[in-house]
Amino acid sequence: MALRTAREATDATPGTPRPEPRPEPHPDKATRRRLRRRVRVAGLAVDPMTEGEVVDHVVAALKRGEGGHLVTPNVDICWAAARDPEAREIIERADLVVADGMPLVWAAKLLGTPVPGRVTGADLVWSLSEAAAFYHHPVYLLGGPPGVARQAADRLRERHPRLLVVGADAPPHGFETTQEGYARVKDALLAAAPRLVFVGLGFPKQDRLIARLREDLPTTWFVGCGAAITFAAGAVRRAPMWMRRAGLEWLFRLLNEPGRLARRYLLHDLPFALVLLTTCLFRRLFS
User: Fold this and answer.
1) Strand-pair category, 39-41 with 44-46
2) Where in the chain are the domains?
3) What is the pLDDT of residues 249-268, one digit of tens each?
4) What do you get for the CA distance between the two ends of the chain, in Å?
């Protein structure tokens, strides 16, 4: 489907007519071949796909009445998955797994199994919403601080007036620890009947929730998107494009939210990324 990437949509001049996507999305043969040969990076099997290919795949599956689970692992998710076998198993069972973090892209290249590039949840919120608007698939946003999902829904509808948002909610803290809390979230989704759900609760909470919900919503696609809903709402600013391309988005976030992110990024993620890249480099040089 000839959709623009989120980067192109973000950089577009307001009021500029957008090219319409093709009405019949079909993953091409190259995409299908890549799906059959996932590459192993940082202990996870990753689909070597572009953002546009991911959108095409999801739209084609929705047309067939098939749901799915999309995971976008970055270094933080890889670090957590390495220490939590249950969370790692949830990722392994996901229908699509694409590299969100640049260290994963670099590691795959060092191993001789390159992926086309970084595909972030923050970008997919926009590009998948564009596709959902065109094909009339209802969307649900779940996550973020109170009120943020509704702000994100408003901004998405400003960009794509035909987008049908059937729900925007932030479940209360600890909802997943009680059957009643989980049931409220599930019942709201069942009543809204979305075909595409963005779940921004952080890993592994969001993906554990998705794994439970899929049985009740088998024709719905779920995207575990972390902070993407907050970004879409404009509540938190994303890094400039040059920092994203250079793999420095984590540094921008750290400088803006040091109290919340310093321990995670400096004690967990940065050492993990350095070990990952060093290991891949040695394997490249001496294998």
Assistant:
1) antiparallel
2) 39-233
3) 999 999 999 999 999 999 99
4) 40
Helix 270-286 / helix 75-83 crossing angle, nearest 10 deg: 90
**Structural tokens at position 188:** 């709201």
Amino acid at 97: V
Least confident span in 29-43, 175-189, 260-274: 29-43
Stated length of the chain: 287
As a three-state string, the secondary structure of the chain is: CCCCCHHHHHHCCCCCCCCCCCCCCCCCHHHHHHHCCCEEECCEEECCCCHHHHHHHHHHHHHCCCCEEEECCCHHHHHHHHHCHHHHHHHHHCCEECCCCHHHHHHHHHCCCCCCCCCCHHHHHHHHHHHHHHHCCCEEEEECCCCHHHHHHHHHHHHCCCCCEEEEECCCCCHHHCHHHHHHHHHHHHHHCCCEEEEECCCCHHHHHHHHHCCCCCCCEEEECCCHHHHHHCCCCCCCHHHHHCCCHHHHHHHHCHHHHHHHHHHHHHHHHHHHHHHHHHHHHHC
263: buried, middle or exposed (CB in 10 Å: 19+, 13-18, 0-12)? Answer: exposed
By C-alpha distance, which of 28, 48, 36 is closest to 97?
Answer: 48
Which pLDDT tens digit goes with each residue over 42-70?
999 999 999 999 999 999 999 999 999 99
3-state SS record for 110-148: HCCCCCCCCCCHHHHHHHHHHHHHHHCCCEEEEECCCCH
Q: Which fold would CATH assign to domain 39-233?
A: Rossmann fold (3.40.50)
How is residue 161 written in tokens?
């007036």
Report pLDDT for 36: 58
What are the pLDDT digits (tens) for 159-180? Answer: 999 999 999 999 999 999 999 9
Average pLDDT over the chain, rounded to whole? 90
